[in-house]
Every structure is written in structure tokens, then in C-alpha cells.
Amino acid sequence: MMRVWILPILLVLCGSAVATGLISKGSPGTAAAFLLAFLALAGVNSPLIFPKSIGALEAQHRSAGDGRPVVFWRPGCKYCIRLRLRLGRGARQLHWVNIWRDPAGAATVRAANDGNETVPTVVVAGRPHTNPDPEWVREQLSPSA
Q1: For the whole prediction, is pTM greater than 0.90?
Q2: CA dist 36 to 6, 39, 50, 52, Å?
Q3: How many other CB atoms are there within 10 angstroms of residue 107's CB atom?
Q4: Distance between CA 69 and CA 19 in Å, rounded?
Q5: Is residue 1 predicted with pLDDT exceeding 60?
Q6: Rounded to the nearest 10 degrees, what angle do helices 28-44 and 6-24 cross at?
């Protein structure tokens, strides 16, 4: 569980160090800007930006019941962040599985990607799609799809 917080914590610590250095050199405005930038990066890379993750087996069970796609992701993945941000509110309709927290999810991703943990991997109707276009994923959520 702590593994998912390593990158955000490092970003906050680095931002604090840079800001402290800038303040000591007499640039509090620049220090504040840098600190805000590092805090924003930490927030985007934290698990807080993603909907609550569930286990792979639970996600597959729920997907079989409601037909919604399952997204396998991991913190710090820029493609996962892009997918999440581009989906907007629609992202909450998907079932999200953090492969760093769920070994079964990681195994599912490896099985779909020739042994690689390539994310995001989106499973729609039992078929995996590696790093799909966010617009395509949004179409899978529409009632007419």
C-alpha cells in the first residue's frame, strides 16, 4: 500500500526542498509557484485522483453483471492519468483495478500483454485493450454502445 504513495511523497519533498532553497535566496514568489507545481504533480500522481480501486476478481464479477469496462492501472502512469482525466466524470462508471495493490490484476494484465504490465489495460466484454483512446473508452460507456 505504501508503494503507491512513494512518487507523490517524493514530489512533495522535492518541491519543499526547492521552495526552501528559493526562499533562502530571497524569492518567495517563485518558491510558492514551484511548491504549487510540485503539489499539483503529487496530486495527479497520487491514488486520490482515481476512483476507488477494487480487486480484479470483484471487478470482473461486477463487469459481468453491469457490462461496464474494467480498467487496470497503476499510480504514476502518465497514460493512466491521461485516460482518467479525459474521461472526466465518466471515469466513475468504470471498474478500476490498481495492479500494484492486486496481484490478480497484475497477472491479468501480464496475460493480456505478453508478460508485460502495460497499463492502462481496459477489458470490455472479456477482451483486453491496451492503452486505448479515451474517446473509444467513453463510447463503451454510452447507452447505444
Answers
A1: no
A2: 18, 5, 20, 25
A3: 13
A4: 42
A5: no
A6: 180
Question: How do the domains of the chain map onto residue ranges?
Answer: 2-48, 51-141
Residue 110 near residue 85 (C-beta atoms within 8 A):
no
CATH code of domain 51-141: 3.40.30.10
Helices (H), strands (E): how many in the chain?
Answer: 6, 4
- Residue position matching grid coordinates 502518465: 78
Q: Is 65 helix (H, G, I), strand (E, B) or coil?
A: helix
Which amino acid is it at 33? Answer: A
Cβ contact 98:45 at 8 Å: no
Q: Which three cell numbers stand for residue 77?
A: 502512469
Give the C-alpha separation, 142 to 144, whole Å.
Answer: 5
Percentage of residues of the chain with pLDDT beyond 90: 62
